């Protein structure tokens, strides 16, 4: 089976893993939202054997990651789960101790981002972490010209897409019981934001 491929995932998977290995240091199941090609799921499951990785994606897209998962024969990665964050699909998920999502907040509409936070907050146990990777702005300011251009191209493609602002996400998290605790600078003007469930 031909495998879908993202060069960005190849570039960012190790810097993200370096952080996740410190953050998700206890055994448990980690829900990934919007797994895409599955390159992250496979890399993280391979290098974090104390975890069970639960890939998921929108029901229209969740099979995309199957080829990468099948090729690796890992025992700590579950079949991908069809999860539209803005639906009641959450009810069928296995118990999860942590959550992770990459490059989804600027693709989803703001209503979907709200639904993602609400779903994660309901799913996580107390002290569970939600790690969100991607480009973000700060008080309306982009962190690079390339991010500013990326935001313009997203908005031109679809009005509901766009780079999210840290303060909006911080407020949203707080309204669902998720407290923003860490903000890591990663390569290529991306960040890893970490929320802890109260
Ligand atoms: C830019 S891709 C990122 C894929 C992968 N995480 C990565 O970093 O390459 C955005 C992903 O968000 C997913 N997505 C968009 N809307 C969604 C929704 N409402 N519920 C769940 N996933 C969604 C898409 O299907 C897609 O896989």
UniProtKB/TrEMBL annotation:
Mark the transmembrane ranges: none
Q: Which InterPro entries match?
A: DUF938, SAM-dependent_MTases_sf
Tell me the superkingdom of the source. Bacteria
Protein name per Swiss-Prot or TrEMBL: DUF938 domain-containing protein
Give the organism the record lists: Marinobacter qingdaonensis
Lineage, broadest ranks: Bacteria, Pseudomonadati, Pseudomonadota, Gammaproteobacteria, Pseudomonadales
């Amino acid at each position: 089976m031909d495998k879908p491929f993202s060069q960005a995932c190849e570039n960012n998977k190790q810097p993200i893993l370096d952080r996740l290995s410190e953050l998700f240091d206890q055994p448990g199941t980690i829900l990934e939202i919007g797994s895409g090609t599955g390159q992250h799921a496979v890399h993280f499951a391979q290098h974090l054997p104390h975890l069970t990785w639960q890939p998921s994606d929108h029901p229209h897209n969740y099979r995309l990651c199957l080829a990468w998962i099948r090729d690796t024969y890992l025992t700590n990665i579950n079949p991908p789960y069809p999860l539209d964050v803005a639906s009641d699909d959450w009810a069928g998920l296995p118990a999860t101790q942590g959550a992770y999502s990459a490059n989804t907040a600027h693709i989803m509409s703001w209503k979907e981002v709200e639904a993602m936070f609400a779903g994660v907050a309901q799913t996580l146990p107390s002290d569970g972490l939600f790690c969100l990777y991607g480009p973000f702005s700060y008080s309306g300011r982009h962190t690079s010209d390339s991010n500013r251009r990326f935001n313009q191209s997203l908005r031109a493609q679809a009005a509901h897409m766009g780079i999210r602002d840290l303060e909006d996400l911080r407020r949203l998290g707080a309204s669902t019981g998720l407290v923003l605790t860490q903000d890591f600078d990663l390569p290529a003007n991306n960040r890893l934001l970490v929320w802890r469930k109260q």
